[in-house]
Write a structure and sequence with these properties.
Layout: H1 3-14, E1 17-22, E2 28-32, H2 46-54, E3 59-62, H3 67-78, H4 84-95, H5 99-108, H6 114-135
Helix pairs in contact: 1-6, 3-4, 4-5
Length: about 140
């Protein structure tokens, strides 16, 4: 599978979509994960979902990162920060309740180039998807 397709899948997962790859032709089918979209209307996506379900033996689902893995990505990012004050703020954010929201708040208000965080996270998402694709023989 091409790096471009892996990047596409990583982006879809990051947006909260469920991703299925056709084993033979590599076609990607994505649709909202109802856990991430409380207003998800399955009727709007019925045809897409049915297409996957009808041919489920020929599709492989690419799983999103679980919260523990996502947390480890944030912790790893903190280790790359040279600014001691910012690093301490991020460590504190991760140690409080609602660490994802606190981390985002600190990143958004840090003065840090947010692209640094997004580039780091995207590299990790790419690695996550590539590992699954390789393991699943796609």
């Amino acid at each position: 599978m091409s790096d471009e397709k892996i990047i596409e899948i990583a982006g879809e997962l990051d947006c909260g979509l469920k991703c299925f790859v056709h084993i033979e032709n590599g076609t990607l089918i994505s649709y909202p994960d109802e856990l991430n979209y409380p207003d998800f209307d399955p009727d709007e996506w019925a045809e897409v979902i049915k297409n996957v379900e009808r041919d489920l033996d020929n599709y492989v689902e690419i799983e999103k990162m679980d919260p523990h893995e996502s947390f480890r990505v944030m912790e790893s990012f903190v280790d790359t920060i040279d600014d001691v004050r910012l690093r301490d703020k991020l460590i504190r954010a991760l140690s409080k309740s609602k660490p994802f929201r606190n981390f985002k708040f600190e990143i958004d208000n840090s003065g840090l180039d947010r692209e640094q965080w997004f580039a780091f996270k995207n590299r990790r998402l790419f690695e996550w998807v590539k590992e699954q694709v390789t393991y699943k023989g796609l």
